[in-house]
Specification:
Layout lengths: L1 H6 L7 H10 L5 E5 L5 H11 L10 E4 L3 H14 L8 E4 L5 H9 L4 E4 L1 H9 L10 E4 L2 H6 L3 H8 L7 E6 L4 H10 L4 E5 L8 E7 L5 H11 L5 E4 L3 H13 L4 E4 L5 H12 L5 E4 L14 E4 L6 H8 L9 E7 L4 H11 L5 E3 L15 E6 L9 H11 L7 E6 L4 E6 L3 H10 L9 E3 L1
Parallel strand pairs: 1-6, 1-7, 2-4, 2-5, 3-4, 5-6, 8-13, 8-14, 9-11, 9-12, 10-11, 12-13
Antiparallel strand pairs: 15-17, 15-18, 16-17
Length: about 450
């Protein structure tokens, strides 16, 4: 495991890992207070993988997450951490995808289940799943799950899990509901806390007072002023996301949207296109404020100031991931001054307010993506691997490895980022050639 951790770049522990691992590795129950992006997955992933009995093909660990995005990211990171041994099966159970295939996968058993409470409870009710052998229970972002009304579902699930288990609860905040939950489900827990994973210097915050009608036209100036290459813009409503995306498109920007009206396929595709740098701007509601772990986001814009001050921390935490630095800009109007004051009180900081008119728009700065993405209608179910796609592009199409970006393999399809100027060449080459001895449909997304 240590050799694998080193190969993954885990050379130094984050504060939450340093504080929690000595206890969790001794099978102690744990309450860990830490912000998103603090390295929580390894904090609970390393202990549960260490004691996993691979030869015992039963569900031994259960991880509950508030959203599909977070569950997918936790499962992906666990698979990376699990590379030190073979044949560990990790299954993701979330809503928004067909129920039947999940039930079929469960019939073949698994070692670790990662999922959202609603979908896991449905599988329990349909008797597709048994937690009789679970010895590790993790609640990730427990405060968010309670905010979303999952308390009853969580308790029903826990009733099906053996009492003789290790329970680890991770939460960014510690309201009374979390204290009540922890008192109910944990035994003599060790409490550890890391107040923030972002120092004041890693995220530089700017606040601008403006008028509602001037918000959209100020976006290009903010992007060019901070020389941003990858931008997340948060809005409070789905309608505002849609309107802003249309307005920015009219201003010549390529944008993506992420909110709860998208189905799972659309959400997956949106996150892939943004994370592989094919689109430079993602406009999102707070459905993405947690569980969105994408590297190299250098500018977060709060188009709307948050209703809930705690959400602000999660929004700006999308930048400055993994020790990098970043910029967060918050726009607010005169009618929202009370929200701004609440935010200052919560963060215990006295922020300077600037005039948006003072931001200089560098008209020579162009925000353009260097990559395009190709969609291939073959994935894991057709035994397509990232190496097969890379091999086809280098050996047959004639691209260099540096001209091929991120490759994402899903169950029924794959996505590959290609340097934009070579995307047409790659498209024609893959359409005419074969991947793993087969022809696949390929098109630009």
């Amino acid at each position: 495991m240590l050799k694998n951790l080193h190969s993954l770049g885990y050379d130094t522990m984050t504060p939450i890992q340093e504080k929690s691992l000595p206890h969790s590795l001794k099978n102690k129950d744990l309450i860990a207070k830490a912000k998103t992006g603090s390295g929580k997955t390894a904090s609970f992933g390393i202990p549960l993988l260490t004691k996993l009995n691979v030869k015992r093909f039963r569900i031994q660990s259960l991880i509950l997450c508030p959203t599909r995005e977070l569950a997918d990211q936790v499962a992906t990171e666990l698979r990376r951490l699990a590379r030190f041994t073979h044949n560990i099966k990790i299954l993701t159970l979330c809503g928004g995808v067909p129920f039947g295939p999940q039930a079929h996968s469960l019939s073949h058993k698994a070692h670790i289940i990662v999922g959202t409470p609603g979908r896991i409870l449905k599988h329990l009710q349909e008797e597709n799943i048994s937690f009789d052998d679970v010895d590790t229970l993790v609640l990730d972002e427990a405060d968010r799950m309670l905010d979303m009304g999952f308390n009853e579902d969580i308790m029903k699930i826990i009733e099906e899990v053996p009492n003789n288990r290790q329970t680890m609860l991770f939460s960014a905040t510690y309201p009374s509901q979390i204290e009540e939950l922890s008192n109910t489900i944990l035994k003599d827990p060790i409490e550890v806390s890391v107040e923030s994973s972002h120092s004041e210097t890693s995220i530089k915050q700017y606040f601008y007072e403006t008028y509602s009608e001037n918000k959209t036209t100020s976006i290009p100036a903010l992007i060019s002023n901070f020389k941003a290459k990858s931008v997340v813009i948060f809005c409070n409503t789905k309608i505002m996301c849609d309107e802003l995306a249309d307005d920015l498109y009219d201003l010549g920007f390529d944008t993506l949207k992420l909110h709860s009206d998208l189905d799972q396929k659309e959400r997956n595709e949106t996150l892939i296109l943004f994370s592989n740098k094919s689109y430079p701007i993602l406009i999102a509601t707070d459905v993405a404020a947690r569980g969105l772990d994408i590297k190299d986001i250098d500018l977060v814009i709060n188009y709307d100031i948050v209703y809930d001050v705690e959400v602000h921390v999660h929004r700006i935490g999308r930048t400055a991931r993994a020790g990098a630095s970043g910029v967060a800009v918050t726009l607010f109007t005169k009618d929202e001054e009370d929200k701004f004051e609440d935010l200052k009180d919560y963060l215990n900081q006295d922020f300077e307010v600037s005039n948006i008119a003072d931001v200089v728009d560098d008209v020579n700065y162009k925000l353009q993506s260097e990559w395009s993405t190709l969609y291939i209608n073959g994935g894991k179910k057709k035994k397509v691997r990232a190496g097969d796609i890379l091999g086809a592009l280098t050996a047959k199409v004639g691209l260099n490895k540096e001209e091929v970006g991120k490759i994402n393999i899903l169950d029924h399809c794959s996505y590959v980022a290609i340097k934009k100027e070579l995307a047409d060449k790659a498209l024609i080459g893959l359409e005419k050639g074969k991947i793993k001895g087969r022809f696949f449909r390929v098109f630009k997304v």
